[in-house]
Amino acid sequence: MAKLTLADLRKMREEKQQAMEMRDASNKDVQVIVGMGTCGIAAGAKDTFTALVNTINEKGLTNVLIRQTGCMGLCHSEPTVEVVVPGMPTVIYGNVDAATAKDVVEKHIVGHQLIDDKILDRPSIDIIKNA
After folding, report:
1. At 124, is the secondary structure helix, strand, or coil?
2. Cα torsion 70, 44, 111, 116: sign
3. Which phi-psi region, left, alpha or beta, contains residue 112 (left: φ > 0; alpha: ψ -120 to 50)?
4. What are the percentages of helix, strand and coil residues in the chain, rounded to 5?
5. Do the beta carbons of residue 25 and residue 62 sit within 8 Å?
6. Number of domains in the chain
7. In whole angstroms, how far apart are CA 86 and each of 3, 31, 77, 97, 103?
8. DSSP characters for 106-117?
9. CATH code of residue 46
């Protein structure tokens, strides 16, 4: 195994700090929550999570909190991703592969458009109108 240089260690520290910063909730108004129960992981949630992180980084989005949760109870549609954007309904997307993850960032978070064919669930508060 090759020895690490001081430059290698600094680069590694910077990469890890950037990854941890994405999980820091301060000054973030958008949340992306990936179902990472065993069912989600078996269905490819790690790849989905990585695609979300990479796309968020590529877009330079600093207001997005990305985190993991356990099973959302939608095992038949894993990987699942819940997206919370101010001024938009909270939704859970299902069967989110890497391409869909990129769409979630570009269309939903940046473009403020729902991806209708991937929506699994919307809270009833968004569906029921007050009389």
Report:
1. helix
2. negative
3. left
4. 45, 15, 40
5. no
6. 1
7. 47, 9, 25, 24, 18
8. IIIIIT----GG
9. 3.40.30.10
Return the pLDDT at 63: 92
Q: Is residue 115 part of a domain?
A: yes
Q: What is the pLDDT of residue 123?
A: 61
* Residue 18 amino acid letter: Q
Tokens standing for residue 59: 């877009």
Specify if 12 maps to a domain.
no
Classified as helix, coil or strand, 2 is: coil
Write out the chain's pLDDT in tens, 131 residues.
Answer: 678 899 999 999 988 887 777 667 778 899 999 999 999 999 999 999 999 999 998 999 989 999 999 988 888 999 999 999 999 989 999 999 999 999 999 999 999 999 989 998 776 555 555 44
Q: Quote the CA–CA distance of 99 and 51 in Å, as a whole number.
A: 8
Q: Which two tokens stand for residue 20?
A: 């941890």
Residue 88 near residue 81 (C-beta atoms within 8 A): no
Residue 107 counted as domain residue: yes
What's the domain range around 42? Answer: 26-126
